[in-house]
Amino acid sequence: MKPKQHTLEFIKRLAKKMKKEKGITHTQALEAVCIEIGYDSYKHCLQCFDAFRNQFD
Q1: CA dihedral 41, 12, 14, 8 (to 10 degrees)
Q2: E strand residue ranges, the chain
Q3: Taking a C-beta distance cutoff of 8 angstroms, is the pair 56, 5 a contact?
Q4: Is the CA virtual torsion 43, 46, 29, 4 positive or negative?
Q5: ∠17-18-22 over CA atoms, to 5°?
Q6: I want to staple 44 with a disulfide (CB 3.0 to 4.6 A). Which of 11, 15, 34, 40 is the partner?
C-alpha cells in the first residue's frame, strides 16, 4: 500500500502540534493523526511506509 500523500516528518509535525493543543502524549497524538489521515493506527502507517520503501530496494 502506498503512503497517503504525507511524509513521516509531516505526520510527526502534526502530532507535535496536536500534543501541545490538546495536552496529550506524543504517542496519543501520533495515533490520532494517523487515524485522522486514514490509517488504522500509527503502527499501520509505519508498516505502509516500510512496505512502500521496500518495493524499491
Answers
A1: -70
A2: none
A3: no
A4: negative
A5: 125
A6: 40
What are 46's three cell numbers? 509505519
**Secondary element (H or E) of residue 17:** helix 8-22
Which amino acid is located at 20 in the chain? K
The three three-digit cell numbers of residue 18, written as one number: 496536536
Distance CA 21, CA 50 (A): 29
What is the rounded CA–CA span in Å between residue 5 and residue 10? 10
Instruction: Record the pTM.
Output: 0.82
Q: Which residue has the higher pLDDT, 28 or 51?
A: 28
pLDDT digits (tens, 9 = 90+) for 15-44: 999 999 999 999 999 999 999 999 999 999
Q: What are the grid coordinates assigned to 17, written together?
A: 502540534
